[in-house]
Structure to design on (152 residues):
């Protein structure tokens, strides 16, 4: 059964819609005996990229503090082609949609311009005192929207 994809309208247009990218050095411990990157490693790359994206926008205090913490509500990966130890991996990250207390974050795993994997996940801002979702600060929303919209 083929699952509908969030990679729309086509892979190249989707890749080109990202404005934040970091290099990822694949470590030996992230591979199997054949040199393929293990499927769980992609999720570690997503986390690294997401944190660096938020740091780049100066959102660390808004999204990770004593009062609020961002948590992953769901996370998925569509594996499109294998990754290998020596691949020059680039990870692209964007906030595709932002709501009251959550955001939909997309990830593109790219090697030499080729989309090797696509990911997405919902991140929810939680109030640490209550353990319940809390609104994303307006300033954080504005910075994300300004970054994403001015580069489209």
């Amino acid at each position: 059964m083929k699952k509908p994809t969030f990679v729309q309208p086509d892979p190249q247009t989707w890749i080109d819609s990202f404005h934040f990218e970091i290099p990822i050095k694949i470590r030996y411990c992230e591979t199997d005996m054949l040199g393929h990157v293990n499927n769980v490693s992609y999720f570690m790359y997503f986390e690294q990229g997401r944190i660096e994206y938020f740091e780049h926008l100066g959102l660390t205090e808004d999204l990770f503090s004593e009062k609020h913490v961002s948590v992953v509500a769901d996370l998925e990966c569509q594996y499109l082609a294998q990754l290998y130890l020596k691949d020059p991996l680039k990870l692209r990250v964007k906030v595709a949609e932002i709501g009251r207390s959550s955001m939909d974050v997309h990830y593109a795993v790219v090697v030499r311009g080729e989309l090797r994997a696509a990911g997405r996940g919902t991140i929810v801002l939680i109030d640490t005192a209550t353990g319940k979702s809390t609104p994303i600060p307006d300033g954080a929303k504005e910075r994300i929207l300004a970054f994403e919209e001015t580069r489209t």
